[in-house]
Amino acid sequence: MALEDAKTQVDQAFTRQDLRGPSFENTFGGATSFLRRRYSKTLNGIDIAVTGVPFDQAVTNRPGTRLGPRAIREASALQSPDAPYGWGYDALSELAIVDYGDVAFDYADVPSFPDRLTDHIRTILASDTASVTLGGDHYISFPILKAYAEKYGPMSLLHFDAHSDTWPDDDMARVDHGTMFYKAVKLGLIDPATSVQVGIRTTNEDTLGVNIIDAATVHEIGPVETARQIKEILGARPTYLTFDIDCLDPAYAPGTGTPVWGGLTSAQAARILREIAGINIKGGDIVEVSPPFDTTGATAIAGAHVATEIICLLGWNLLNK
């Protein structure tokens, strides 16, 4: 890759005219958006809006995931401007994708945040645009799911994580990154019978009927069979995909709030995400990237790739209706 015109091929987060195609720009410079997509608050005719949620509050040990969206955007600049490898089509050329910017988090008024985030996602969905959200601690999936359930009805959840996040908590106003899917089941936002959690490796006696493919099983049966089982469980139902970066083993993603050994490799995760192409995905998020605990940037790089794969899954679905 080489710049054809250094005068124009810079700051394309603001200056690019088209919404489709590659973005040739120095990886080390320029205004940083996700994959150098154009920043825009206009969603007419947009297929996918990438948005950041710089929120953390309820982490059990390591805060810092509010810095995740910025780090993921920066890491995305390292990816090749060519078509995402291995998909057989170029989602970045065939889809209209914008970086929608961030939702504001008033750190001095935490109780107001969940409704603000739901409204933010509701606005995106009202334009028949899918959202790909960069987090932020994992609690953010709960307010997001409220907006998705309003539009599509109860969702099937595809949840990659080390933790089930279904520990009991009947206080629906309590902001906690380990109980939000318990609340989502109780409020009817997700259908547990057609939902699946992948990579789990912490004990929770009551999974509320959600299907589990734990990390040990993934290692035993491999990513292709894991993907087959995921697709069988989800069927054709509207699905929301959430990927907690601690689904990966700490060797691949040390910069997270709650690292647990024995997790998936990045290669396993990449293969699973590509093998599930065709699921009826409506949106997704990547959460728990905590840059202060990974000076190498490897965790943010993994997060940026996961977000790209979610875009490709959405594109596969949109282009093959």
Write the layout of secondary structure elements.
Elements: H1 12-15, E1 48-53, H2 68-76, H3 91-94, E2 97-102, H4 113-126, E3 130-135, H5 141-152, E4 156-160, H6 180-186, E5 196-198, E6 211-213, H7 215-234, E7 239-244, H8 266-275, E8 281-287, H9 298-319
Helix pairs in contact: 2-9, 4-5, 5-6, 7-8, 8-9
What is the compact description of this entry?
With 321 residues, the chain is α/β, with parallel strands linked by helices. Helix content is 32%, strand content 13%.
Structure notes:
The chain is an alpha/beta fold. It is built from nine helices and eight strands. Strands 2-1-3-8-7-4-5-6 form an eight-stranded parallel beta sheet, with helices on both faces. Helix 8 links the parallel strand 7 (239-244) and strand 8 (281-287).
The dominant shape is globular
Poorly predicted segments = none
| Strand neighbour order, sheet with most strands | 2-1-3-8-7-4-5-6
Look at the helices and sheets and give the structural class. Answer: alpha/beta
Largest sheet: 8 strands, parallel
Average the pLDDT over all residues and give the rounded result.
93
Distance between the termini: 33 Å
Helices, by number, come to: 9
Kindly state the number of beta strands. 8
Strand content: 5-15%
Helix content: 25-40%
How would you describe the oligomerization state of the chains in this entry?
Answer: single chain
Rg computed from alpha carbons, rounded to a whole number of angstroms: 18 Å
List the secondary-structure elements in sequence, H or E. HEHHEHEHEHEEHEHEH
